[in-house]
């Protein structure tokens, strides 16, 4: 089933906000995740302290992604999917990069999520960082996965690490598959030219992630990742000022969307004291335009006032039961399809192997 992502411009309006007496919602959607980073917490310190966003990429993330192999990816994705389920998130839009293990990586992620019982939309982040052959291999992996019926987008790392030819090829491949491109856009000042370079390529079904320093309007859904943006000190994206549909992602820092909603609200409020939680809640609801299947899922929460004003100031709300596609996948807060302790233990083993590889890197 290729091209299942609806055009956000024409999709049905989101459902009415869940009532203030209800403890049940549809499944939450994380509109931008990196499941491969689930094992990164506690990783060895980088060779030196990064002093800006580009160095955070170079010294942390671009070293980590080179150390990934399919086994590490599998346990990272299983842990990330488990933690999503334990947070009431039933649908993840993932963006993946593993330059030394590209072929088959999207199948590994899709399989891990299916095993846990979480929906996933996969993309391989194409880049010319490792030469044009690397970019080609990334395009091939997106094409292979989509052609085989996987749910996904065509991933691109970011315009500033891609040639014009690669950007055009990714846009064309996505159009051929009836889906959009999932791309980081102007996350930091290293990517200031993204608006100019993508203006003729972007379409309504693209996922335009971050848009912190985007200097013009682009079509597509903007995915706002407030906690990640603060962690990387890239600046405030001011998504409320955009005319695009805005959805919320975590950029790999878990998949607890109620947490991300709270951070999104409080960051908005810090910028504009007239901001209300309803705006950040609308960004959360936009996830259902991107992943409408999650509307069929139900989450019963530990709290009976699942409305934006109550949740903005109530921490620690957790799911008690989660039903995905008619199957109860979380009961009494515990997964039914997998053994959470086993996943955590195997993920810890994979993390130890990953950290050892990082220690050996120059
Ligand atoms: Zn990201």
Short overview:
The chain is of the alpha/beta class. It is built from eleven helices and 13 strands.
What's the tally of helices? 11
The H/E string reads: EEHHEHEHEHEHEEHEHHEHEEEH
Distance between the termini: 43 Å
| Fraction of helical residues | 25-40%
Shape: globular
CATH architecture: Alpha-Beta Barrel
Radius of gyration: 19 Å
Number of strands: 13
Q: Mean pLDDT, nearest integer?
A: 94
Q: Would you identify the regions where 5 or more consecutive residues have pLDDT less than 50?
A: 1-21
Please identify the top-level CATH class. Answer: Alpha Beta
The oligomerization state is single chain
What name goes with the CATH superfamily?
A: Metal-dependent hydrolases
Explain what you see.
The chain has a single domain (29-360), classed as Metal-dependent hydrolases (TIM Barrel), CATH 3.20.20. The chain has helices at residues 53-67, 70-85, 105-116, 131-147, 164-176, 194-198, 226-231, 257-271, 277-290, 308-311, 340-360, and strands at residues 24-25, 28-33, 89-94, 119-121, 154-158, 181-185, 207-210, 221-224, 246-248, 298-301, 319-324, 327-331, 334-335. It is built from eleven helices and 13 strands. The strands form three sheets. The protein has a five-stranded antiparallel sheet with strand order 1-10-11-12-13, with no helix packed on it. Strands 5-6-7-8-9 form a five-stranded parallel sheet. With 362 residues, it is of the alpha/beta class. The chain is 38% helix and 15% strand. Helix 3 links the parallel strand 3 and strand 4 (119-121). Helix 2 (70-85) packs parallel to helix 3 (105-116). Zinc ion binds at residues 32, 34, 95, 184, 209, 251.
